[in-house]
Write a structure and sequence with these properties.
Blueprint (H helix, E strand, L loop, with lengths): L4 E4 L5 H10 L3 E6 L9 H10 L5 E6 L4 H11 L3 E4 L5 H10 L6 E9 L2 E2 L5 H7 L3 E6 L16 H10 L5 E4 L7 H8 L3 E4 L4 E2 L2 E2 L1 H13 L11 H6 L7 E6 L7 H10 L4 E5 L9 H12 L4 H14 L6 E5 L6 H14 L3 E5 L6 H10 L3 E5 L6 H10 L3 E5 L13 H11 L4 E4 L5 H8 L5 E4 L1 H8 L4 H8 L3
Parallel strand pairs: 1-2, 1-9, 2-3, 3-4, 4-5, 5-7, 7-8, 8-9, 12-13, 12-19, 13-14, 14-15, 15-16, 16-17, 17-18, 18-19
Antiparallel strand pairs: 5-6, 10-11
Helix pairs in contact: 1-8, 4-5, 6-7, 10-19, 12-13
């Protein structure tokens, strides 16, 4: 799909349809036989449907009826799409589909979210098999004017978990969608489109200006699936078996030739880059700590680091760049929020936190996902099942599995190969394995597991510090 779909609900006037058509909206909702200030008679709905052009579909939104009544109402209203709510069953969908072809009628089956669950979620596959074109997820509870708008939306971590359970499902997301949060909601849910009502209204009427602002934001925020900046997750899922490498570099090291080295690494065959922001107190081992120190001594502050990241991201628009950030930089919410905004502007696709405690993951993931970025989280082989479940819940890009002894730790982990197979059976998230990767044998061993790639950091940084060639190093480690 080239762009996200847009449905604007509760149209009551011909000029509103004209505004929506001009803005490129795909569907407009006609409320019939429902308790709403924008409810219409079937006759009025038909008048509005007849006013629409071929590029925008009038959509009947109504209470569930016996199928004969529903089919009659669809025909009477002139709708070319219908939104079916609970308690619609897969059999209801099947009967409607028998009466109307896909060219004649688009079917949207609603799955409401409330009280911590998606009602009817277990029937999604059955709805689609019966003929539904889209699954529309919407917040069951409503807010009153003046209440916190965030309460009208489904929580981002719930959307991420839903997306992971239903990869590839044609989802429309609704409930409190605004120009301010549309990017985050689409990114977290993996939705192919949105359904909006009150946020595009001014004095009760649909505002062309507000619709245009919403769509502008929607089309700008595309770092996740269906976007201009590739999703790390989607990128790794598409990787074919082989000796694949993801390379870590501290931004600004080697001094004076960092961007040149980054280009060499990618040109030599690395899948993508993990770029560490220089920090005065990194929690990594001596090799990477020395790399941070060299970059800082060369005058690489956050502003300069962002400029270099942007240069690389622009030169390689098909590569999802991962920003590596020390935990100390994450604890200050306001400053970290501005930092994430700059990462989005620079073209990063994901964020990997170093040294973040499990209890900090919900707030971290929410801020990251709000901006359409993905999270890369470490999942060590000694992680308990409960800890793994927490990590899976807040990870959206890929899982980082440490191999062997973690730098700065006295603990020797168990067999990472067995652990990769275990994790692969528990989650669909792609795996990347790192720590102690030095040879082509290490890379080959990792890539024989369910992992998509090996991650190399200290060995590459040390090789460069000794004056070695970045391209030669990458080619040697990925040789088949």
């Amino acid at each position: 799909m080239s762009r996200p779909l847009v449905k604007i609900c509760a149209v009551t006037r011909e000029d509103e349809i004209e505004h929506l058509s001009q803005c490129g909206v795909d569907f407009f909702g006609l409320l019939v036989n429902v308790p709403s200030p924008w409810a219409l008679s079937p006759q009025r709905a038909r008048e509005l449907a007849d006013h629409s052009g071929p590029d925008i579909r009038p959509t009947l939104v109504t209470r569930p009826n016996r199928n004969e009544q529903l089919e009659s109402l669809i025909a009477q209203s002139g709708a070319r799409a219908v939104q079916l709510g609970v308690p619609s069953t897969p059999e209801h969908v099947r009967q409607v589909r028998r009466a109307f072809s896909r060219d004649e009628l688009v079917i949207m089956q609603e799955i409401p979210y409330g009280r911590g669950q998606f009602w009817g979620e277990e029937q999604i596959d059955d709805y689609l098999a019966a003929g539904a074109d889209f699954i529309l997820i919407d917040k069951l509870e409503r807010t009153r004017p003046g209440q916190d708008q965030a309460r009208a939306t489904i929580a981002l971590d719930e959307l991420v978990a839903f997306r992971d359970r239903h990869l590839g499902c044609p989802v429309l997301v609704a409930g409190g969608v605004t120009a301010a949060n549309v990017r985050a909601l689409v990114a977290a849910s993996g939705a192919v489109g949105i359904d909006v009502c009150s946020s595009v209204r001014r004095d009760g009427r649909i505002s062309r200006e507000l619709v245009a602002q919403l769509i502008e934001q929607l089309h700008q925020g595309k770092p996740l699936p269906a976007g201009t900046k590739p999703s790390l997750r989607v990128f790794l899922e598409a990787v074919e078996p082989g000796n694949h490498l993801i390379a870590y570099l501290t931004i600004g090291d080697p001094p004076d030739r960092f961007v040149e080295v980054a280009n060499e690494v990618l040109a030599a065959g690395a899948l993508t880059l993990e770029l560490g922001f220089p920090d005065s107190k990194p929690t990594e081992g001596p090799t990477l700590s020395a790399s941070h120190e060299r970059a800082l001594n060369a005058g690489v502050n956050v502003e300069r680091a962002m400029e270099m990241l942007k240069a690389i991201a622009r030169a390689y628009p098909d590569r999802p760049i991962v920003a590596v950030v020390q935990s100390a930089a994450i604890t200050h919410a306001d400053e970290f929020g501005r930092f994430l905004d700059e990462l989005v502007e620079a073209g990063a696709a994901a964020v990997l936190p170093v040294g973040l405690a499990p209890w900090q993951l919900p707030a971290f993931a929410e801020r990251v996902h709000q901006r359409g970025l993905e999270t890369v989280l470490a999942c060590p082989p000694d992680a308990s099942r409960r800890l793994r479940e927490i990590i899976f819940r807040y990870c959206s890009g890929c899982l980082y599995v440490p191999r062997g002894r973690v730098t700065g730790s006295s603990q020797q982990f168990g067999n990472f190969t067995d652990f990769c197979h275990l994790v692969a059976n528990e989650t669909d998230l792609p795996l990347v394995v790192g720590v102690g990767v030095k040879t082509v044998g290490d890379v080959a061993e990792i890539c024989r597991t369910p992992a998509k790639a090996a991650a190399v950091g200290s060995a590459l940084v040390d090789h460069l510090a000794r004056g070695g060639s970045a391209a030669e190093f990458v080619r040697r480690l990925t040789a088949c």
